[in-house]
Amino acid sequence: MTKKPQLTTSAGAPVVSNETTKTAGERGPALLQDYQLIEKLAHQNRERIPERVVHAKGWGAQGTFTVTHDITDYTCADLFSEVGKQTEVLSRWSTVAGESGAADTERDVRGFSLKFYTQQGNWDMVGNNTPIFFIRDGYKFPDFIRTQKRHPKTNLRSPEAMFDFWAAQPESVHQVTILMSDRGIPVSPMHMNGYGSHTFSMWNKEGKRHWVKFHFKTQQGIKNYTNETSEKIIGSTREKYQEELYNAIEEGNFPKWTMYIQAMPEEEAGQQSYNPFDLTKVWPHDDYPLIEVGELEMNKNPENYFQMIENAAFSPSNVVPGIGFSPDKMLQARIFSYADAHRYRLGTHYEALPANAPKNSKVNHYHKDGAMRFFTNDFGNPDAYYEPNQYEGPVADFSVKEPPLRIDGDADRYHQDEVDVDYVQPRKLYEMFSDEQKERLYKNYAAAMGPCSDSVKERWYAVLEKVHPDYAAGVKNAVDSLDTDVNTVPITENTPIEDN
Ligand code: NDP
Ligand code: HEM
């Protein structure tokens, strides 16, 4: 039998006992000098960090991205530089609204985050399983999230708040339609697509810019649960996704996605009937076909979930040369928000944690001290601690700058109030649904909207009416008949068993 390693203090000294408190006499009391007892209890008290303010419940894995098609006409990003090139990736999928203990198979949008550890630094693709979003102005995000979280008095989630807000933001109907459709409850993270959702940009080595959208299409097929199945699952396990994902990877059934981009030449923006930087809109495939790029395979469970997944800090601000932002103002709000959340949630030097530290490029910066400065980047010369300096300290490289972007217009606060074009894409989506899909859409709405007041219901029906009269009528009928159903459910079915 191999000898077990010696237990030590965090300062490396051997520990005498990990079970018995040092006491004055057999019956106590405890001696304050039993420092290891204090240390053990103190550490336990610090085991939790703030959960993510949104997307708190998640599941993650490690894997590889392989380039299968040449897109160097669009980008000079090193990770896409040649067919066959592989890059390590960290992924995290999540629900949006639930807390970190929420059940996995709840109806919600799913987050789809990827960190590519490229040779030119980390590129984070922080998207969702939907190609669009509920709102298009960062000002509205905190209010939107408030409607998804708990009511301040009841401490319960509030359908009234959700539909009240959405009814006042009709551009949300596109995303709400997806949320209430079959895709609102994926069978697992492996059975859903991922989308960058925003418009981003790419530029090639000649300095030509394209606007791009990112798509990751599941090779496992899109599979979803109905409300009824999901309720049964939650009754037996709240951790369905974690179980499915973890076991699939342990068994060697590695989930895969095919990556595509849609690309729009810079000068074409503005020629569409919709704003190509509006996050509530897709780019129709007919206009901007999918261009295949590569394959993502997630093939390793992290050795320590907390270290790699809870500590992971994904941020849309993490881009690499050849990939850039777009004028989408929601995107700009996110570029600020994530790194700020990480400094609060993980600490000043969160980028040096194992999940976030670049694996394939060297870190050279002049950020210095602060809590948890557990890395060195003194560049071999302690005098090089400011910039510019006469020593061999690192210097910026102008050659990686993105090509200039012409911006014009007056600085102002431009409303993007409801416009007819907001209803075009949701209408197309609704018309794509089969009759069975539409019936399930109506029933899902009924389950979600049932508790809402009549005034909120009527306001939402008015939004649906503008998408399609059949859509509004279908939802209204389902909500009305749900009310009847509820009243006719025999009371005995829900009667608790008395303790006698
Ligand atoms: P297309 O017919 O070319 O594309 C339709 C796309 O819709 C499909 O490729 C699929 O995208 C997606 N889709 C299919 N079934 C569903 C469903 N039940 N729920 C949600 N999405 C579904 O037409 P368009 O490109 O003009 O898009 C039509 C509508 O489809 C859009 O208005 C939008 O609502 C929706 N859509 C469009 C996407 C796009 O990037 N153009 C992406 C996803 C949805 P996928 O394979 O990515 O799942
Ligand atoms: C998580 C802010 C819109 C996808 C987060 C977090 C914040 C945030 C603060 C927690 C970060 C952390 O603690 O690690 C915002 C703001 C938005 C916005 C301010 C709008 C202005 C979006 C959109 C998408 C998205 C449009 C998808 C297209 C995600 C995902 C996560 C996340 C996937 C979880 C990341 C992870 O797995 O760690 N968001 N968000 N968010 N957000 Fe957003």
What does this structure look like?
The chain has 500 residues and is an alpha+beta fold. It has 2 domains: 58-352, Catalase HpII,  Chain A, domain 1; 423-481, no CATH class. The protein is built from 12 helices and 10 strands. The chain has helices at 35-45, 141-148, 159-168, 173-180, 227-236, 240-250, 305-310, 329-345, 421-432, 435-449, 454-467, 469-488, and strands at residues 58-67, 86-95, 110-118, 121-128, 194-195, 200-203, 209-218, 256-265, 291-300, 323-324. Helix 2 runs antiparallel to helix 3 (159-168), helix 3 packs across helix 11 and helix 11 (454-467) packs antiparallel against helix 12 (469-488). The protein binds NADPH dihydro-nicotinamide-adenine-dinucleotide phosphate (NDP) and protoporphyrin IX containing FE (HEM).
Mean pLDDT: 95
- Distance between termini? 54 Å
Ligand names: NADPH dihydro-nicotinamide-adenine-dinucleotide phosphate, protoporphyrin IX containing FE
Give the class-level CATH name of the largest domain. Answer: Mainly Beta
* CATH homolog superfamily of the largest domain: Catalase core domain
Count of DSSP helices? 12
**Low-pLDDT residue intervals, each spanning 5 or more residues:** 485-492
Give the SSE string: HEEEEHHHEEEHHEEHEHHHHH
Q: What fraction, in percent, of the residue positions are helical? A: 25-40%
Number of strands: 10
CATH topology of the largest domain: Catalase HpII,  Chain A, domain 1
**General form:** globular
Described by strand count, sense and barrel closure, the largest sheet is:
10 strands, antiparallel
User: Pairing-aware structural class of the strands and helices?
Assistant: alpha+beta
The CATH level-2 architecture of the largest domain is identified as Beta Barrel
